[in-house]
Amino acid sequence: MKITRVSEVAEFKNPHNIQAKKLLESPDATVVHMTLNPGEQLISHVTPVDVFFYVLSGEPTIEIGNEKEKVPADSVVESPADIPHCVYNESESVTKFLVVKLSKSK
After folding, report:
1. DSSP 19-74
2. Is 6 helix (H, G, I), strand (E, B) or coil?
């Protein structure tokens, strides 16, 4: 069994300039733990693979294409490949979420 503790994983530099920690990278998926402080956001971008967000804490605003909605903790949001997406923290508290990038089918 391999256990990865978020607190023990080093942050990596990313184009969004936010706290991000890669928890898993395999041929099938990549899992990144992200933290947004109040007022922070990702840069709107497109990925060539399907992605989903799992909100751990807080209530970020998630935008997928032309849909934008506040999402509570313990929610999963699917983001299909090639659709612009973004996550905003418009609240007064820290929000944490996982980004899971799924590999393309073989």
Report:
1. EEEEEEE-SSEEEEEEEE-TT-BPPPB--SS-EEEEEEES--EEEETTEEEE--SS
2. helix
Instruction: Give the residue among 79, 80, 78, 58 at the shortest CA–CA distance from 70.
Output: 58
Q: pLDDT tens across 10-52, in order?
A: 999 999 999 999 999 999 999 999 999 999 999 999 999 999 9
Measured torsion, CA atoms of residues 74, 79, 80, 81, in degrees rounded to the nearest 10: -130
Tokens of 13: 């530099």
Q: How far apart are CA 50 and CA 105, in angstroms?
A: 10
> Residue 60 and residue 36: Cα distance in Å, rounded?
9
Buried/exposed 43-63: b ≥16 CB within 10 Å, e otherwise: eeeebeebbebbbbebebbbb
Which of 19, 25, 35 shows the shortest CA–CA distance to 4? 25
